[in-house]
Please model this.
Amino acid sequence: MIRPKWTAMVTAFSMLALAGCATDDSTDSSAPPAPSTSAGSQYDLASVCPSTVVVQTDWNPESEHGGTYKMVGPNPKIDADKKRVTGALVAKDGTNTGVNIEIRAGGPAIGFQSVAAQMYTDTSITLGYGGSDDAIALSKTQPTLGVFAGLEKSPQIVMWSPDAHPDWTTIADIGKTDSKVLYFQGATYMEYFTGKGILKKSQVDGSYDGTPANFVASGGKFAQQGFATAEPYIYEHEVKAFGKPVKYQLIADAGFDFYQQMLSIRSGEKDKLAPCLKKLVPIMQQAQVDFMNDPASTNKLILDLVTRYNNGWTYSQGVADNCVKQMKALGIVGNGKDSTLGNFEDSRLTALIDITKPIFTAQNKQMKPDIKASDIATNEFIDPSIGLK
Model:
Protein backbone atom coordinates (compact mmCIF):
# COMPACT_ATOMS: atom_id res chain seq x y z
CA MET A 1 0.00 0.00 0.00
CA ILE A 2 1.25 3.46 -0.85
CA ARG A 3 1.40 5.93 1.99
CA PRO A 4 0.08 9.47 1.35
CA LYS A 5 2.58 11.99 0.06
CA TRP A 6 2.36 15.05 2.29
CA THR A 7 4.25 17.53 0.12
CA ALA A 8 1.15 19.48 -0.83
CA MET A 9 -0.10 19.44 2.75
CA VAL A 10 3.05 21.16 3.89
CA THR A 11 2.54 24.01 1.43
CA ALA A 12 -1.18 24.41 1.87
CA PHE A 13 -1.51 24.09 5.61
CA SER A 14 1.94 25.04 7.02
CA MET A 15 2.54 21.86 8.93
CA LEU A 16 5.01 21.95 11.80
CA ALA A 17 8.69 21.84 10.94
CA LEU A 18 10.44 18.93 12.54
CA ALA A 19 13.61 19.07 14.57
CA GLY A 20 15.97 16.19 13.75
CA CYS A 21 19.15 15.36 15.56
CA ALA A 22 22.26 17.27 14.62
CA THR A 23 24.58 15.48 12.20
CA ASP A 24 27.20 16.26 9.60
CA ASP A 25 25.34 17.35 6.47
CA SER A 26 27.88 15.79 4.14
CA THR A 27 26.64 12.90 2.02
CA ASP A 28 28.56 9.65 2.40
CA SER A 29 27.21 6.52 0.77
CA SER A 30 30.11 4.27 1.74
CA ALA A 31 29.39 1.59 4.31
CA PRO A 32 31.31 1.68 7.60
CA PRO A 33 33.69 -1.19 8.32
CA ALA A 34 31.87 -4.33 9.39
CA PRO A 35 32.10 -4.76 13.17
CA SER A 36 33.52 -7.81 14.83
CA THR A 37 31.60 -10.25 16.99
CA SER A 38 32.20 -13.52 18.76
CA ALA A 39 32.34 -16.25 16.14
CA GLY A 40 29.72 -18.93 16.64
CA SER A 41 27.49 -16.81 18.90
CA GLN A 42 23.77 -16.46 18.31
CA TYR A 43 24.42 -12.93 17.09
CA ASP A 44 27.27 -13.82 14.70
CA LEU A 45 25.91 -13.15 11.22
CA ALA A 46 29.22 -12.78 9.41
CA SER A 47 29.49 -16.46 8.52
CA VAL A 48 25.91 -16.87 7.28
CA CYS A 49 24.59 -13.52 6.00
CA PRO A 50 25.58 -11.09 3.25
CA SER A 51 28.23 -8.62 4.42
CA THR A 52 25.52 -5.95 4.10
CA VAL A 53 21.89 -6.90 4.75
CA VAL A 54 19.87 -4.59 2.49
CA VAL A 55 16.29 -3.76 3.54
CA GLN A 56 13.96 -2.00 1.09
CA THR A 57 11.15 -0.19 2.92
CA ASP A 58 7.80 0.79 1.45
CA TRP A 59 7.89 4.49 2.32
CA ASN A 60 9.93 7.32 3.78
CA PRO A 61 11.41 6.78 7.26
CA GLU A 62 8.65 6.55 9.85
CA SER A 63 8.08 4.98 13.25
CA GLU A 64 6.12 2.07 11.78
CA HIS A 65 9.59 1.00 10.56
CA GLY A 66 11.09 1.47 14.03
CA GLY A 67 12.16 -2.12 14.61
CA THR A 68 14.23 -2.11 11.43
CA TYR A 69 15.93 1.21 12.19
CA LYS A 70 16.59 -0.05 15.72
CA MET A 71 19.15 -2.45 14.21
CA VAL A 72 21.30 0.41 12.86
CA GLY A 73 24.39 0.84 15.01
CA PRO A 74 26.08 4.10 16.05
CA ASN A 75 27.54 6.61 13.59
CA PRO A 76 25.80 5.36 10.45
CA LYS A 77 26.55 6.70 6.98
CA ILE A 78 23.66 8.61 5.37
CA ASP A 79 23.32 8.91 1.61
CA ALA A 80 20.88 11.80 1.21
CA ASP A 81 20.85 11.51 -2.58
CA LYS A 82 19.95 7.82 -2.71
CA LYS A 83 17.79 8.04 0.44
CA ARG A 84 19.48 5.25 2.35
CA VAL A 85 21.35 4.75 5.62
CA THR A 86 24.09 2.18 6.30
CA GLY A 87 25.57 1.13 9.61
CA ALA A 88 26.67 -1.79 11.70
CA LEU A 89 23.82 -4.26 12.20
CA VAL A 90 23.43 -4.55 15.94
CA ALA A 91 21.44 -7.03 17.99
CA LYS A 92 20.13 -6.89 21.56
CA ASP A 93 21.96 -4.41 23.82
CA GLY A 94 23.90 -3.08 20.82
CA THR A 95 25.78 -6.33 20.23
CA ASN A 96 27.77 -6.33 17.00
CA THR A 97 26.76 -9.01 14.51
CA GLY A 98 29.75 -8.74 12.18
CA VAL A 99 27.73 -7.42 9.22
CA ASN A 100 26.21 -4.11 8.14
CA ILE A 101 22.62 -3.13 7.47
CA GLU A 102 21.48 -0.75 4.74
CA ILE A 103 17.93 0.59 4.91
CA ARG A 104 16.53 2.17 1.78
CA ALA A 105 13.53 4.49 1.63
CA GLY A 106 10.61 3.52 -0.58
CA GLY A 107 7.74 5.49 -2.09
CA PRO A 108 9.17 8.50 -3.93
CA ALA A 109 12.73 7.18 -3.58
CA ILE A 110 11.88 4.26 -5.89
CA GLY A 111 9.44 6.07 -8.15
CA PHE A 112 6.42 4.79 -6.19
CA GLN A 113 6.80 1.31 -7.66
CA SER A 114 6.06 -1.72 -5.52
CA VAL A 115 8.76 -3.09 -3.26
CA ALA A 116 8.43 -6.51 -4.92
CA ALA A 117 9.16 -4.95 -8.31
CA GLN A 118 12.20 -3.21 -6.84
CA MET A 119 13.39 -6.48 -5.31
CA TYR A 120 13.28 -8.21 -8.67
CA THR A 121 14.96 -5.27 -10.39
CA ASP A 122 17.74 -4.98 -7.80
CA THR A 123 18.78 -8.36 -6.45
CA SER A 124 21.17 -6.79 -3.94
CA ILE A 125 18.07 -6.29 -1.74
CA THR A 126 17.89 -8.96 0.96
CA LEU A 127 14.51 -8.15 2.52
CA GLY A 128 11.63 -5.95 1.44
CA TYR A 129 8.49 -4.58 3.04
CA GLY A 130 5.17 -5.67 1.57
CA GLY A 131 1.55 -6.49 2.30
CA SER A 132 0.19 -10.02 2.25
CA ASP A 133 -2.45 -8.90 -0.26
CA ASP A 134 0.25 -7.75 -2.67
CA ALA A 135 2.11 -11.02 -2.12
CA ILE A 136 -0.98 -12.89 -3.28
CA ALA A 137 -1.46 -10.68 -6.33
CA LEU A 138 2.20 -11.05 -7.38
CA SER A 139 2.62 -14.69 -6.36
CA LYS A 140 3.31 -15.87 -9.91
CA THR A 141 5.17 -12.95 -11.48
CA GLN A 142 7.19 -11.57 -8.54
CA PRO A 143 6.79 -14.08 -5.70
CA THR A 144 7.87 -13.08 -2.21
CA LEU A 145 7.81 -14.95 1.08
CA GLY A 146 7.16 -13.19 4.38
CA VAL A 147 9.57 -14.19 7.16
CA PHE A 148 8.64 -11.62 9.82
CA ALA A 149 5.41 -9.74 10.55
CA GLY A 150 6.61 -6.49 12.08
CA LEU A 151 3.02 -5.27 12.42
CA GLU A 152 0.45 -7.62 13.90
CA LYS A 153 -2.42 -5.48 12.64
CA SER A 154 -2.58 -3.01 9.76
CA PRO A 155 -2.86 0.65 10.87
CA GLN A 156 -4.96 1.44 7.76
CA ILE A 157 -8.23 3.18 8.62
CA VAL A 158 -11.24 4.97 7.24
CA MET A 159 -11.80 8.14 9.27
CA TRP A 160 -14.49 10.80 9.62
CA SER A 161 -15.45 13.85 11.65
CA PRO A 162 -17.59 13.01 14.70
CA ASP A 163 -18.99 16.55 14.57
CA ALA A 164 -20.36 15.97 11.08
CA HIS A 165 -21.37 12.35 11.71
CA PRO A 166 -22.04 11.74 15.42
CA ASP A 167 -23.94 8.53 14.63
CA TRP A 168 -21.11 6.78 12.78
CA THR A 169 -19.11 4.18 14.70
CA THR A 170 -18.05 1.79 11.93
CA ILE A 171 -17.22 1.79 8.23
CA ALA A 172 -20.49 -0.08 7.67
CA ASP A 173 -22.35 2.95 9.07
CA ILE A 174 -20.83 5.06 6.28
CA GLY A 175 -22.19 2.57 3.75
CA LYS A 176 -25.71 3.20 4.99
CA THR A 177 -25.40 6.75 3.65
CA ASP A 178 -24.34 8.35 0.37
CA SER A 179 -21.40 10.23 1.89
CA LYS A 180 -18.24 10.29 -0.20
CA VAL A 181 -15.27 8.15 0.87
CA LEU A 182 -11.86 9.34 -0.37
CA TYR A 183 -9.13 6.75 -0.99
CA PHE A 184 -6.12 5.97 -3.18
CA GLN A 185 -7.22 4.32 -6.43
CA GLY A 186 -6.29 0.65 -6.59
CA ALA A 187 -6.56 -0.18 -2.87
CA THR A 188 -7.55 -3.84 -2.55
CA TYR A 189 -9.45 -3.33 0.69
CA MET A 190 -11.83 -0.92 -1.06
CA GLU A 191 -12.63 -3.56 -3.68
CA TYR A 192 -13.47 -5.86 -0.78
CA PHE A 193 -15.69 -3.27 0.94
CA THR A 194 -17.65 -2.48 -2.22
CA GLY A 195 -17.86 -6.13 -3.26
CA LYS A 196 -19.30 -7.12 0.13
CA GLY A 197 -21.70 -4.19 0.16
CA ILE A 198 -20.06 -2.61 3.21
CA LEU A 199 -19.66 0.54 1.09
CA LYS A 200 -21.42 1.49 -2.14
CA LYS A 201 -19.43 1.71 -5.36
CA SER A 202 -21.24 4.96 -6.05
CA GLN A 203 -19.87 6.63 -2.91
CA VAL A 204 -16.17 5.73 -3.05
CA ASP A 205 -13.82 8.21 -4.72
CA GLY A 206 -10.34 7.06 -5.74
CA SER A 207 -9.03 10.57 -6.41
CA TYR A 208 -7.42 11.00 -2.97
CA ASP A 209 -3.86 12.30 -3.41
CA GLY A 210 -2.68 12.39 0.19
CA THR A 211 -3.51 16.02 0.88
CA PRO A 212 -6.25 17.11 3.32
CA ALA A 213 -7.82 19.73 1.02
CA ASN A 214 -11.01 17.86 0.05
CA PHE A 215 -11.66 16.48 3.52
CA VAL A 216 -11.19 19.91 5.09
CA ALA A 217 -13.27 21.66 2.43
CA SER A 218 -16.13 19.24 3.11
CA GLY A 219 -16.08 20.23 6.78
CA GLY A 220 -15.40 16.64 7.64
CA LYS A 221 -18.55 15.42 5.87
CA PHE A 222 -16.43 13.20 3.62
CA ALA A 223 -14.81 10.06 4.99
CA GLN A 224 -11.18 9.40 4.08
CA GLN A 225 -8.54 6.71 4.30
CA GLY A 226 -5.53 7.12 6.58
CA PHE A 227 -3.28 5.45 9.13
CA ALA A 228 -4.35 5.25 12.79
CA THR A 229 -0.73 5.96 13.65
CA ALA A 230 -0.61 9.27 11.78
CA GLU A 231 -3.66 11.03 10.36
CA PRO A 232 -5.83 11.37 13.52
CA TYR A 233 -2.96 13.14 15.28
CA ILE A 234 -1.99 15.19 12.22
CA TYR A 235 -5.52 16.40 11.50
CA GLU A 236 -6.08 17.44 15.10
CA HIS A 237 -2.68 18.99 15.83
CA GLU A 238 -0.93 19.88 12.58
CA VAL A 239 -3.59 20.64 9.96
CA LYS A 240 -4.49 24.08 11.25
CA ALA A 241 -7.41 24.46 8.85
CA PHE A 242 -9.13 21.53 10.57
CA GLY A 243 -7.71 21.19 14.08
CA LYS A 244 -10.30 18.79 15.52
CA PRO A 245 -10.39 15.13 16.53
CA VAL A 246 -11.52 12.51 14.04
CA LYS A 247 -12.94 9.07 14.61
CA TYR A 248 -12.13 5.98 12.60
CA GLN A 249 -12.30 2.23 12.24
CA LEU A 250 -9.36 0.01 11.35
CA ILE A 251 -9.99 -1.82 8.08
CA ALA A 252 -8.74 -4.96 9.85
CA ASP A 253 -11.69 -4.70 12.24
CA ALA A 254 -14.05 -4.27 9.28
CA GLY A 255 -13.06 -7.60 7.72
CA PHE A 256 -9.90 -6.96 5.67
CA ASP A 257 -7.29 -8.31 8.07
CA PHE A 258 -4.05 -8.43 6.10
CA TYR A 259 -0.42 -8.33 7.20
CA GLN A 260 0.98 -4.93 6.29
CA GLN A 261 4.71 -4.21 6.13
CA MET A 262 5.74 -7.83 6.52
CA LEU A 263 9.42 -8.35 5.75
CA SER A 264 9.88 -10.72 2.84
CA ILE A 265 12.51 -12.36 0.69
CA ARG A 266 12.35 -13.41 -2.96
CA SER A 267 10.67 -16.82 -2.67
CA GLY A 268 13.30 -18.63 -4.69
CA GLU A 269 16.06 -17.60 -2.27
CA LYS A 270 14.66 -19.29 0.83
CA ASP A 271 17.13 -22.19 0.85
CA LYS A 272 20.07 -19.89 0.11
CA LEU A 273 19.18 -17.43 2.88
CA ALA A 274 17.94 -19.96 5.44
CA PRO A 275 21.18 -20.07 7.52
CA CYS A 276 21.15 -16.25 7.68
CA LEU A 277 17.44 -15.97 8.43
CA LYS A 278 17.67 -18.50 11.25
CA LYS A 279 19.82 -16.01 13.17
CA LEU A 280 18.63 -12.72 11.66
CA VAL A 281 14.86 -13.06 12.14
CA PRO A 282 15.08 -13.46 15.95
CA ILE A 283 17.31 -10.36 15.99
CA MET A 284 14.57 -8.54 14.06
CA GLN A 285 11.93 -9.76 16.51
CA GLN A 286 13.95 -8.53 19.48
CA ALA A 287 14.66 -5.19 17.77
CA GLN A 288 10.91 -4.61 17.41
CA VAL A 289 10.38 -5.43 21.08
CA ASP A 290 13.23 -3.13 22.11
CA PHE A 291 11.96 -0.30 19.92
CA MET A 292 8.49 -0.48 21.43
CA ASN A 293 9.96 -0.45 24.94
CA ASP A 294 12.40 2.41 24.27
CA PRO A 295 11.79 4.25 20.97
CA ALA A 296 13.53 7.57 21.68
CA SER A 297 16.93 7.05 20.08
CA THR A 298 15.50 5.29 17.02
CA ASN A 299 12.88 7.98 16.49
CA LYS A 300 15.70 10.52 16.67
CA LEU A 301 17.44 8.72 13.80
CA ILE A 302 14.19 8.51 11.81
CA LEU A 303 13.56 12.25 12.21
CA ASP A 304 17.13 13.02 11.20
CA LEU A 305 16.80 10.89 8.08
CA VAL A 306 13.58 12.67 7.11
CA THR A 307 15.39 16.00 7.43
CA ARG A 308 18.45 14.84 5.52
CA TYR A 309 16.48 13.19 2.70
CA ASN A 310 14.54 16.44 2.23
CA ASN A 311 12.05 15.17 -0.36
CA GLY A 312 8.92 16.96 0.84
CA TRP A 313 7.92 14.34 3.40
CA THR A 314 7.28 16.01 6.75
CA TYR A 315 7.39 14.00 9.96
CA SER A 316 7.34 15.65 13.36
CA GLN A 317 8.39 14.52 16.81
CA GLY A 318 4.73 14.62 17.81
CA VAL A 319 3.71 12.26 15.00
CA ALA A 320 6.59 9.88 15.80
CA ASP A 321 5.74 9.75 19.51
CA ASN A 322 2.03 9.35 18.82
CA CYS A 323 2.76 6.54 16.38
CA VAL A 324 4.39 4.42 19.06
CA LYS A 325 1.59 5.22 21.49
CA GLN A 326 -1.07 4.12 19.01
CA MET A 327 0.82 1.01 17.92
CA LYS A 328 0.75 -0.09 21.57
CA ALA A 329 -2.82 0.95 22.29
CA LEU A 330 -4.36 -0.60 19.17
CA GLY A 331 -2.28 -3.77 19.05
CA ILE A 332 -0.74 -2.74 15.73
CA VAL A 333 2.55 -4.03 17.11
CA GLY A 334 1.93 -6.96 19.39
CA ASN A 335 2.05 -10.68 19.87
CA GLY A 336 -0.11 -13.02 17.86
CA LYS A 337 -2.74 -15.15 19.55
CA ASP A 338 0.16 -16.73 21.41
CA SER A 339 3.03 -14.96 23.22
CA THR A 340 5.19 -14.57 20.09
CA LEU A 341 5.82 -11.35 18.17
CA GLY A 342 6.23 -11.46 14.41
CA ASN A 343 4.72 -14.82 13.51
CA PHE A 344 2.02 -15.47 10.93
CA GLU A 345 -1.36 -17.17 11.37
CA ASP A 346 -2.12 -19.60 8.55
CA SER A 347 -5.89 -19.34 8.93
CA ARG A 348 -5.69 -15.56 8.60
CA LEU A 349 -3.61 -15.84 5.43
CA THR A 350 -5.98 -18.46 4.03
CA ALA A 351 -8.98 -16.20 4.71
CA LEU A 352 -7.23 -13.35 2.89
CA ILE A 353 -6.52 -15.60 -0.10
CA ASP A 354 -10.22 -16.50 -0.22
CA ILE A 355 -11.16 -12.81 -0.10
CA THR A 356 -8.67 -11.52 -2.65
CA LYS A 357 -8.56 -14.29 -5.29
CA PRO A 358 -11.86 -13.21 -6.90
CA ILE A 359 -10.74 -9.56 -6.80
CA PHE A 360 -7.37 -10.25 -8.40
CA THR A 361 -8.88 -12.65 -10.93
CA ALA A 362 -11.25 -9.90 -12.06
CA GLN A 363 -8.23 -7.59 -12.35
CA ASN A 364 -6.39 -10.16 -14.50
CA LYS A 365 -3.61 -10.55 -11.94
CA GLN A 366 -1.49 -13.65 -12.51
CA MET A 367 -1.51 -15.54 -9.23
CA LYS A 368 0.15 -18.83 -8.46
CA PRO A 369 -2.34 -21.62 -9.18
CA ASP A 370 -3.76 -23.18 -6.02
CA ILE A 371 -1.94 -20.61 -3.89
CA LYS A 372 -1.87 -21.39 -0.17
CA ALA A 373 -0.74 -19.70 3.02
CA SER A 374 2.70 -21.31 2.97
CA ASP A 375 3.36 -19.65 -0.40
CA ILE A 376 2.96 -16.22 1.22
CA ALA A 377 4.68 -16.49 4.59
CA THR A 378 6.56 -18.85 6.88
CA ASN A 379 7.23 -19.11 10.63
CA GLU A 380 10.27 -21.31 10.04
CA PHE A 381 12.72 -18.69 11.26
CA ILE A 382 10.65 -17.18 14.09
CA ASP A 383 11.82 -17.64 17.68
CA PRO A 384 8.59 -18.40 19.61
CA SER A 385 10.14 -17.23 22.89
CA ILE A 386 10.43 -13.59 21.75
CA GLY A 387 7.43 -11.35 22.33
CA LEU A 388 6.15 -8.26 24.10
CA LYS A 389 5.66 -8.81 27.81
In short: The first strand starts at residue 52 and ends at 56. The chain has two domains: 7-152+259-375, 156-254.
